[in-house]
Amino acid sequence: MDEGEKGKLKWNRRAAVCKRAVSSFLAVWMVVMTLGTAASYAASDNKSDTGAGVSAAPGGSFTLGDGVAAAILIDAATGQVLYEQNADQPRPPASMTKMMTEYIVLEKIKNKQLTWDTMVTTSKEAASTPVDGSQIYLAEGDQHSVEDLYIAMAVGSANDATIALASHIAGSEAGFVDLMNETAATLGLKTARFTGATGLQADTIITARDTAKLAEIILREDPDFLKYSSIPSYKFRPRDTKPMINWNWMLESNKDVTNFKQFAYEGVDGMKTGYIAESGYNFTGTAERNGMRLISVVMGAKTMQSRFFETAKLFDYGFNNFESKTIVAPKSVVENVKTVKISKGAKTNVAVVTETDVTFLVRKGGESKVEVLETKVKPADELVAPIPAGEPVGTVTYAYTDGSGKQLQKTVNLVTSEEAKKGSWWRLMFRGVRNFFAGLFSGIVDLF
To answer: Residues in domain Peptidase S11 D-Ala-D-Ala carboxypeptidase A C-terminal (predicted)?
Structure first.
């Protein structure tokens, strides 16, 4: 074998070794990639699809039953949304419509235009209410107090009592509907379109979000609402053989009632159920625990019972996973706005602090970040001494970012923390002279 053949044989051996090494590497690489892909698919399969608008709970995910068409859960104190599902889809609210009727009645009482003792004469329109819904069988000319009719509406969802109140306030149900829509516009309920006072009409529509907003407004402005919405039963007339039973089976007071104790939920004291064939079963509820009040809305549930079970899921989610956290105490000093300039004071500025606290519902155990997003203060020429302590002089906006990256914002007033007394004429004169020469000197320096 000559030298050329020996070299060729040696090269072929080396090539074979390299080929085997490359083949082995590729085989190992394919195994690793296959295992990695499998692990990736396994990890992906273990992730729960929470769906649109569904918030993930710590340690897992949270979803409502398939039968719910729309839902929302909010903090009653701030309106902060904790969960939502199709919350911006307008739907018939059915008898949840009566919350607007109740709100208007409460506002009339608050403004001294009605009293609870005002006697209402049942109109022909009210006495002619169709019998295919809840009612107390009013006859034309019957007289009952506003309070009795209100309770019949709030507890028994009585349609005839609702129309009796509506026609008393506005002359007719149609006139009252105009008032309902005017009120909705004033309150910022952009999706609400009312065509009746009772909710029997399928073309009355509103979103879950706006329904929750209405509930929030009622609870904030009319605390008497809960006094009536929490009544478990009520005998409308002395001669009635049975009392009306509250359609809200979740009332905490039902915990010892045989038929309802499976639905009773700790802290529930309102608000309103609703059903017509076009809407499915609806419920706006509210519950308070340890100083934290939540509002829930469930729309389009398939059964009378499921609307309560799904509401209980919402409340469990809220109370189990969130806590109220004060991130800024009242009367706190803002680092970059410790004082504001004023005019004609003994001093040229006055110390300021936050008027109220800044509180959010935050995930339990989650990390958080708080920052001052914006400050605004009035100019000195608008803040003329004397100025009392506690006088609003500006605002500060705080941003809170939770562990998931979601940002919440709240704006509070900046107020004076002490009285700013007016300066004496002597002090103000010398301050004016000093400022004049300071300005003059500055102008001269600028010439050079």
So the answer is: 322-422
The residues pairing with 128 across neighbouring beta strands, listed in sequence order, are none
Catalytic site residue 253? Answer: no
- Measured CA to CA in angstroms, residue 43 lies from 31, 34, 66 at distances of 18, 14, 25
Instruction: Give, in words, the CATH class of 329-431.
Output: mainly beta
pTM, two decimals, is: 0.76
Contacts of 260 (CB under 8 A, 6+ apart): 249, 251, 254
Catalytic residue among 123, 157, 230, 296: 157
CA gap 300, 190 in Å, rounded? 20
Q: Of the candidates 122, 66, 99, 49, which has an alpha carbon nearest to the alpha carbon of residue 300?
A: 66
Sheet containing 292-301: give its strands across: 81-85, 70-75, 292-301, 280-289, 268-276
- Enter the tokens of residue 331: 């009367």
Residue 124 marked as a ligand binder: no
3-class SS at 373? strand
Which tens digit of pLDDT belongs to each residue from 400-447?
Answer: 887 666 788 889 999 999 998 886 766 656 666 666 666 655 655 565
Q: How far is CA 441 from CA 51, 307, 434, in A?
A: 68, 77, 11
> 245-294: per-residue pLDDT in tens?
999 999 999 999 999 999 999 999 999 999 999 999 999 999 999 999 99
Domain 70-322: which topology? Beta-lactamase (3.40.710)
C-alpha dist (Å) from residue 46 to 41, 59, 61: 9, 13, 11
Give tens-digit pLDDT for 14-69: 444 444 443 444 343 333 333 333 333 233 323 323 233 343 333 346 889 878 99
Taking alpha carbons only, the member of 74, 7, 37, 24 closest to residue 295 is 74
Determine whether 157 is an active site residue. yes
Q: Verify whether residue 306 is a known catalytic residue.
A: no
From the list 55, 95, 134, 296, the catalytic residue is 95
pLDDT at 389 over 90: yes
